[in-house]
Design goal:
Radius of gyration: 19 Å
Strand content: under 5%
Number of strands: 4
Shape: globular
Order of helices and strands: EHEHEEHHHHHHHH
Number of helices: 10
Largest sheet: 4 strands, mixed
């Protein structure tokens, strides 16, 4: 999630045409270091906001693969100001590892006057304090395929080679119509623009519900990258997209298949323990002042249903394939989330 859509400040959200920018910094961190950035434990820091669905993909992937010790984590305040994501959750308002107040400082160290906004997820080199990549589409794929030497024992294969064509096809549809579609609806500046986007969101959700009615996961019988990318939008749906973004033809809780599917993932270690509903709601309702000028954060929705039985196990499937679930949340509480049921 970036500042592109609000380049004139938070008030610009919802007052200008929505455009999802491509990642400007697309260097890759690879096993062979071909872009100059080799995979190396402790060399990099992942910067996220728990409010952001794009950053949440990286949080889920990092935890499922067991990269916590290899790749440290910085969590930004969910309510950024016009200068970018800020580290006001940390003592003194500075990230304790990078020593910066704003993520934009790491961007500036890489390139001054760069086009585009300051987005998360971002990976920053610890020693130099400069941004390495903000390529939200590629980061998690590289976690799954390039960081394998640092995976935990029993880590799942989130991007199995024999399934990649199908995974890519499903992810492309989810990205266009769902991940991006809710934003096109929410930031629409005209009735027709909104109706086209909103219609596309629910058309795709209905198709996904049909697909998932007879299988536990989107591709094959295990969790893949495709499930991670759909989950991070669905988990936010009733809390922010239904009301704030006007995607309100129905609530997720009213769709039997999708509601059971997202609860299944939420209750799977590595998914729900990275979610923070408090951060999610405060970001959307307090930052997008062009849509919600009062900044009032709603009290709902009721979160108690997230822990209810889903019965998706009746469809079979093995969440982690031949692997194992990640262990309990670490003693330092890094994976702990707030605002959970």
């Amino acid at each position: 999630m970036s500042r592109d859509e609000g380049a004139d400040g938070n008030i610009a959200y919802g007052r200008k045409a929505f455009k999802r920018s491509r990642a400007h910094f697309a260097d890759r961190i690879t096993a062979d270091g071909r872009d100059g950035w080799p995979v190396e434990a402790g060399r990099y820091r992942l910067v996220v906001s728990r409010a952001c669905p794009w950053a949440s993909r990286a949080l889920v992937s990092r935890r499922l693969l067991g990269l916590e010790d290899a790749l440290s984590l910085a969590v930004a305040d969910p309510v950024q100001d016009d200068r970018s994501w800020r580290f006001t959750l940390d003592p003194g308002g500075r990230d304790p590892v990078l020593g910066i107040r704003y993520l934009s400082e790491a961007y500036d160290r890489r390139e001054t006057d760069y086009p585009g906004g300051v987005s998360v997820p971002a990976i920053v080199e610890v020693a130099g304090g400069q941004l390495v990549t903000n390529d939200y589409q590629q980061i998690t794929l590289d976690f799954a395929t390039e960081w394998t030497a640092l995976h935990r024992a029993g880590a799942p294969d989130l991007y199995p080679e024999k399934r990649r064509d199908e995974i890519d096809a499903v992810m492309a549809e989810v990205f266009d119509d769902v991940n991006n579609g809710v934003y096109r609806a929410g930031f629409a500046t005209g009735q027709q623009e909104y109706e086209v986007a909103c219609t596309g969101v629910f058309r795709r959700l209905e198709l996904l519900a049909r697909r998932l009615a007879g299988q536990r996961y989107l591709v094959g019988d295990t969790i893949t990258e495709a499930d991670i990318r759909l989950f991070t939008t669905l988990v936010r749906f009733d809390a922010v997209y239904h009301g704030h973004f006007k995607c309100n033809r129905w609530k997720l809780t009213e769709n039997r298949v999708l509601w059971a599917y997202v609860r299944d993932l939420y209750q799977t270690p590595g998914f729900g323990d990275t979610v923070d509903f408090d951060h999610i709601k405060r970001h959307y309702y307090q930052v997008h002042t062009g849509i919600n000028p009062t900044g009032i954060v709603p009290l709902g929705p009721d979160l108690s249903g997230w822990s209810a039985p889903h019965h998706r196990e009746d469809l079979g499937g093995r969440p982690f394939g031949d692997g194992t679930p990640p262990g309990p949340v670490r003693a330092d509480g890094e994976a702990a989330a707030r605002g959970r049921p």
